[in-house]
């Protein structure tokens, strides 16, 4: 057997043009933005291609390990290439799910944050409480909270502050000059600095995002979360717990 030829072949395969995670993130964002022109079946096909590439690279790892041992540089490189291909395949699947999901309707004066929560890409987490906090990690009750569905999906929709009513029943109409002034320079709605937090079904805090949400008026922000392994951070904030988990009624004997 010509081991040099095998080594050359596997080296070329392990070094195939699999994009980096950063490169894929840019492509994924463009794919979702053009979801109206790109069918979910095409995205699914792309995922199958990367799954096949990952499987092929895994076989190369096995062959190279038999030839050179598990700690050789060529095996380590092949393992990295296979892992990267699997990461890309996983992200393609998450993009496909986003492409087929329906974004919530958002008022022009408001915004929304929606998405999915997973333990692994194949394991959605249901019954988790999603809420928003400020930079001091204080629960912002005015925006409410959401509970993840069976597929891990959630949505928090905020319609914005109600505009001041100038035509209430029985009210005296404002002078035309005042009405014109209000119409000419309406106050611009503010966009708060908020962070996404979530608790598990045991009312324990399991995640608080380190980066603030990039909210935009009139748009829905999509976020996928794969929770890291580890113990819960703390208990559910009392304000959320009062609303999300009201006390159960005691039955009389």
Description:
This protein has two domains: 3-100, no CATH class; 111-161 and 172-244, Carboxypeptidase-like, regulatory domain (Immunoglobulin-like). It starts with a helix and ends in a 9-residue tail after the last helix. It is built from six helices and nine strands; from the N terminus they run H-H-H-H-E-E-E-E-E-H-E-E-E-E-H. Mean pLDDT is 74; it is low at 5-16, 163-170 and 246-251. Helix 1 (3-14) runs antiparallel to helix 3. A five-stranded antiparallel β-sheet has the order 4-3-6-7-9, covered by helices on one side. The chain is an alpha+beta fold. A hairpin with a 2-residue loop joins strand 1 and strand 2 (123-124). The longest helix has 29 residues, at 40-68. The protein has helices at 3-14, 21-33, 40-68, 73-100, 176-184, 238-244; strands at residues 111-120, 123-124, 129-133, 145-147, 153-158, 195-199, 204-208, 220-226, 234-235.
Explain briefly what this protein structure is.
The chain is α+β, with helices and mostly antiparallel strands and 253 residues long. It has helices at 3-14, 21-33, 40-68, 73-100, 176-184, 238-244; strands at residues 111-120, 123-124, 129-133, 145-147, 153-158, 195-199, 204-208, 220-226, 234-235.
Q: Helix amount, in percent?
A: 25-40%
Could you name the ranges where pLDDT drops below 50 across 5 or more consecutive residues? 5-16, 163-170, 246-251
Total of DSSP H or I helical runs spanning 4+ residues: 6
Q: Tell me the radius of gyration.
A: 25 Å
Based on CA inertia axes, which overall geometry fits?
Answer: elongated
* Estimated structural class: alpha+beta
Taken together, the total number of domains comes to 2
Q: What is the CATH architecture assignment of the largest domain?
A: Sandwich
Record field, number of beta strands: 9
Biggest β-sheet: strands ordered side by side in the sheet:
4-3-6-7-9
Mean pLDDT equals 74
* Oligomeric state of this protein: single chain
End-to-end distance: 81 Å
- Output the CATH homologous superfamily of the largest domain: Carboxypeptidase-like, regulatory domain
CATH class of the largest domain: Mainly Beta
- Along the chain, the helix and strand elements come as HHHHEEEEEHEEEEH
Q: What is the fold named in CATH at topology level of the largest domain?
A: Immunoglobulin-like
β-strand percent reads: 15-25%
Major sheet size, sense and barrel closure: 5 strands, antiparallel
């Amino acid at each position: 057997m010509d081991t040099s030829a095998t080594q050359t072949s596997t080296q070329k395969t392990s070094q195939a043009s699999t994009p980096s995670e950063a490169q894929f993130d840019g492509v994924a964002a463009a794919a979702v933005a053009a979801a109206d022109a790109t069918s979910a079946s095409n995205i699914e096909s792309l995922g199958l291609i990367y799954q096949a590439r990952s499987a092929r690279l895994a076989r190369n790892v096995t062959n190279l390990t038999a030839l050179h041992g598990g700690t050789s540089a060529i095996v380590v490189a092949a393992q990295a290439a296979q892992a990267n291909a699997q990461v890309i395949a996983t992200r393609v699947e998450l993009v496909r799910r986003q492409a087929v999901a329906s974004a919530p309707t958002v008022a022009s004066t408001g915004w929304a944050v929606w998405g999915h929560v997973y333990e692994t890409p194949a394991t959605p987490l249901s019954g988790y409480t999603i809420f928003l906090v400020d930079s001091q990690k204080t629960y912002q009750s005015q925006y409410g909270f959401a509970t993840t569905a069976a597929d891990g999906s959630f949505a928090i929709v905020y319609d914005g502050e109600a505009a001041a009513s100038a035509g209430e029943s029985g009210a005296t109409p404002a002078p035309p000059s005042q009405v014109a002034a209000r119409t000419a320079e309406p106050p611009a709605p503010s966009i708060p600095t908020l962070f996404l937090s979530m608790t598990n079904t045991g009312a324990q805090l399991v995640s608080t995002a380190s980066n603030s949400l990039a909210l935009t008026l009139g748009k829905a922000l999509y976020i996928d979360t794969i929770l890291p392994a580890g113990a819960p951070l703390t208990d559910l904030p009392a304000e959320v717990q009062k609303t999300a988990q009201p006390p159960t009624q005691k039955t009389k004997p």
